[in-house]
Amino acid sequence: MNSIPQLTEMPDPQFVMTSEGHKIATYSWGDESDPTVILVHGFASNARDNWVLTGWVRDLQRAGYRALALDQRGHGASDKPHDPADYALRALASDVEAVLDTYLVDTALYVGYSLGARVGWEVTQDFADRIPRAVLGGVPDGVPLGRLDIPQVQAYVDEGTPVTDQVTQNYLRLVERVPGNDLRALIAIATGMRRSGLVDPDTTHVPEQPVLFATGSEDGIIEGSKALAAATPQGRFIEIPGRHHFNAPGSRDFRTLAIEFLTATSPLPVA
Q1: Angstrom distance (rounded) from CA 145 to CA 109
Q2: Would residue 105 count as lying in a domain?
Q3: 81-84: long-range contacts (C-beta < 8 A, 24 or more apart)?
Q4: Could you tell me if residue 171 is inside a domain?
């Protein structure tokens, strides 16, 4: 019998407790003895939507990896506090560390998309000795964090006032498509990230390990992604053809190139 799970199969969540007392839902697929890839999803998404339905978990197992995913705080089956103070970028990065510690994983390859990639920019530096190689898709994540019209979303939640900003409309459609999303928690995430002053990655402090940056050809943040790759000593950039910010995770090209990159063992040549 094939041990690779069906495309939509989800294990029961295992909860990791953060230092602040928040529960983070985690999911594991594959043999614990295999190299671990930790998967961190984007804003208004969750582990299932970003990594299971798109084939990442299946393909990673076929390539010989154990997949370890989490629902970021404010998402999925994890706790969803409504206080923006709970969503500082450092707190989101520390959740990844807590998951690795709880699962007794010393080192892991990192794959993040959108907000998960923005978190990964910090994780690859804060815990560099534990993350030898990373894939950061759809970063910088300026769309939900810098361009989301929070007052319009707040008015929509409180009074049902229609949202007129196009970017915000796109994210509302995503929010409403993913079951279990809590709009007030997502507002708190965007507000907390802005207050932290770390919405955009700092190109004066960059990861030293090999990092693959991948962004859709139709994504408005593509030039920013290219700039981050250029600023990273062992950075490489790939363009995901015909994809925008919301559908890039489902690209077979993206998955294939990312897994090839993770599998490589030698450093990237320095230009």
Answers
A1: 25
A2: yes
A3: 81/22, 81/185, 81/188, 82/184, 82/185, 82/188, 83/188, 83/192, 84/188, 84/189, 84/191, 84/192, 84/195
A4: no
Inside any domain, residue 165: no
If one counts the domains in the chain, the total is 1
d(CA 18, CA 26): 12
- DSSP H helix total and E strand total for the chain: 10, 8
Phi-psi region of 42 (alpha: psi -120 to 50; beta: other; left: phi over 0): beta
Identity of residue 265? T
Instruction: Give the dihedral sign, CA 252/115/28/208.
Output: positive
pTM above 0.85, yes or no: yes
Q: What is the CATH number of the domain that holds 82?
A: 3.40.50.1820
pLDDT tens by residue, 157-209: 999 999 999 888 888 888 888 888 998 998 898 888 877 766 678 888 999 99
Please give the span between the terminal C-alpha atoms of the chain, in angstroms, as a whole number: 47
